[in-house]
Amino acid sequence: MSHNTRQRRLAALRACDQILSGIRPTTMRERLADMDAGGDLDGQPDFYGDGPVNTLEERVAELLGTEAAVFFPTGTMAQQVALRYGADRTGHPTVALHPLGHLEVDERHAYAHLSGLRSTWPTTAPRNPTAEEITALAEPVSTVVIELPLRDAGFVLLSWDELAAASAAARAIGARVHFDGARIWESTPHLAHTLSEIADLADSTYVSFYKTIGGISGAALAGTTQLASYARIWRHRYGGEVFQQWPAALTALAGLDRELPRIPEYVRHARTVAAALTALPGARVYPEPPHTHRFRLWLPHPAQALNDATLALAEEEKVWFVAGWQETAVPGMAMTEVTVATPALEWTAEDIAEVGERFLGRVVDH
Predict the structure, then answer these.
(1) Please, where are the H alpha helices in 26-74?
(2) What integer pLDDT is reported at residue 94 of this predicted model?
(3) Torsion angle, CA of 181/183/184/189, rounded to 10 degrees?
(4) Residue ranges of the chain assigned to CATH 3.90.1150.10
(5) In the prediction, which pLDDT does 35 show?
(6) Phi/psi of residue 239, nearest 5 degrees
(7) Residues pairing with 327 in the sheet
(8) Which residues contact 142 (CB under 8 A, 6 or more apart)?
């Protein structure tokens, strides 16, 4: 997407009165004003990780029920430290990953290039590995990584019993369990357990602060005090010992206060939104019903035609439907991801059907 196209889309979305998927973009000035919700702006900034950063670490450790948590500027860095720790402790350079996971798809195989680790795939199915697949691994592994939810498979989760069994199977073969929990915040309704109960199944858990809860950046790695001590050393070595990160810490704290309690409501409404979207001609959603407040949607039209229709509806009627359409392996069938957040709570199934008809009326296939 060109810079001009992106700016046009952001301007159109910002001006909309109704938004089905996503949230209204904010300016830098608005984000600065929002920081006051995360803490005392008259207090002192952090100095290499104390102050509000330390407050955030303590809050995450409390939420996840772990001994400690360590702030990282990026999730990529946090995950590298978690895998390196596992390899150092077990002596095994192989980690069990999913080919659709963050570590393989989005982090440019940093675990291999920076730490000399290699991966094995317990499964290539579009879901996290089962206990049986972990038990059947043909070689020793230091860490089994489970992504909650598995984003590139459609934000899918195992059931609680399946997740608990997978964790037990990993430990039975002598491996650590690491949860790639960038979006763990939205996983609690489907798993029907608290954040601390979920994290208790893992030896380490990574969480993101800009995904789901709306911080501007940052992540944390949670686990034992021994892991935390190791993480602080390697965070420094990787270049993550940043002088001041209070803006990220304050917006994360604000998100934990404001957004985290609303996520169950988002997940419930996502089921209503998904069911209404499936009524559109040729539409398909997955998973059905959604496991989180995000899911995938397919329509039988070219991606460009759908993106053009979204923009036209937004600019002319101030209504944002669903954007970010991409082509698929099936010609003429496009896919996108739907995110149900605060703006979508105002939409009824009838609203979606009515606006969906207007949206499709603007689609011009070429």
Answers:
(1) 28-34, 52-64
(2) 98
(3) -160
(4) 3-27+261-361
(5) 82
(6) 90, 20
(7) 334
(8) 83, 86, 87, 89, 90, 91, 92, 93, 94, 95, 117, 175, 176
Please give the structure tokens belonging to residue 222: 């949670």
pLDDT of residue 1: 65
Q: In this predicted structure, what is the pLDDT of residue 271?
A: 98
CA angle 49, 53, 56 (to 5 degrees): 145
CA distance 140 to 120: 10
- For 79, the token pair is 């995950």
Answer whether 212's CB lies under 8 Å from 225's CB.
no
Q: Is the torsion defined by CA of 288, 289, 295, 300 positive or negative? A: positive
Q: What is the dihedral of CA 269, 275, 281, 287, to 10 degrees?
A: 100
Looking at the chain, the domain(s) classified CATH 3.40.640.10 span 46-243
What is the structure's pLDDT at 2?
66
Residues in the chain predicted with pLDDT less than 50, given as ranges, are none
d(CA 15, CA 292): 27
Which residue from 214, 303, 311 is spatially nearest to 11, judged by alpha carbons?
311
Tokens standing for 238?
């990787």
User: How many Cα neighbours within 13 Å face the side chain of 76?
Assistant: 14
Angle at 320 between CA 185 and CA 100, to 5 degrees: 40
| Residue 222 contacts residue 61 (beta carbons within 8 Å) | yes
CB of 199 closer than 8 Å to CB of 148: no
Structure confidence by residue, pLDDT tens digits, 144-174: 999 999 999 999 999 999 999 999 999 999 9
pLDDT of residue 236: 97
Tell me the two tokens of residue 353. Answer: 């059907």
Cα gap 173→162, rounded to integer Å: 17
Nearest alpha-carbon partner for 207 in 219, 215, 197, 224: 219
What does CATH list as the number for 3-27+261-361?
A: 3.90.1150.10
State which CATH number among 3.30.470.20, 3.40.640.10, 3.90.1170.50, 3.90.226.10 fits the domain covering 46-243: 3.40.640.10
